[in-house]
Design a protein that fits this description.
Length: 225
């Protein structure tokens, strides 16, 4: 499988394997894993039936097939460690994985294609996970044209807030992104298009910081005398 063009996780390969081995028993021990959050009916769409009929708008060509969604192993897992310099299985805070994807295409204005892409994932807390109320997951979507070279057509970064209930170390979540728009390819060139989805570890390292509240102007001192 292929994935989004983002830097590989900073988690060393050996430590990541160890962390995965540590988390497998945690998954096996969850006999009452919550059901997957509800998704639109189109979530199971695949192949040609992923084309949506625009109400009152132009229809996609009969030969058009909505570009498939792919995830590359290097971007399918996001890890966060308590010690970024020396991440290990024992100081792992959390691990996020992608489990399922889906897509839908419709015709847009000006002979354009508008895509809607959905993904489902799982957050698993590690030994140093603590009790976070929220985990922010950076997910990048990219429409690319794959031929001899790879050409990025359009890309979009979504920061997905995943609520973590108290004492819950295994949480399933879903997210749908809209607004991936690109010009209709000529002829059969749409067959060279696909969508990459994956975690953007670089964006996770660059979490936006809150701006400090503006300080009020000092009051002018009253003259004495």
């Amino acid at each position: 499988m292929c994935g989004v063009f983002v830097p590989e996780s900073k988690f060393p390969r050996g430590s990541l394997i160890a962390a995965s081995a540590l988390l497998i028993p945690m998954l096996a021990g969850c006999s009452a894993i919550p059901s997957m959050p509800s998704m639109p009916s189109w979530f199971s769409s695949s192949g040609s039936n992923a084309n949506a009929a625009a109400v009152g708008g132009p229809a996609l060509p009969a030969t058009f097939e909505c570009p498939p969604v792919q995830v590359r192993p290097g971007a399918s897992t996001l890890t966060n460690s308590g010690n970024a310099a020396e991440p290990t299985a024992t100081n792992l805070r959390y691990q996020v994985t992608i489990t399922t994807t889906a897509r839908e295409c419709r015709m847009g204005p000006g002979n354009s294609v508008i895509m809607k892409v959905g993904m489902q994932g799982r957050v698993i807390l590690g030994p140093e996970g603590g009790n976070p109320s929220l985990v922010n997951v950076p997910v990048r979507f990219a429409v690319v044209r794959e031929t001899v070279e790879t050409q990025v057509i359009t890309t979009k970064l979504d920061r997905v807030p995943v609520s973590m209930p108290p004492n819950d170390t295994n949480v399933l979540f879903s997210h749908v992104t809209e607004g991936l728009e690109f010009p209709m390819p000529r002829g059969g060139d749409i067959d060279n298009y696909l969508v990459y989805v994956g975690f953007d570890s670089a964006a996770a390292d660059q979490e936006p910081k809150r701006k400090p509240a503006p300080k009020g102007k000092p009051k002018a001192s009253r003259p004495t005398g």
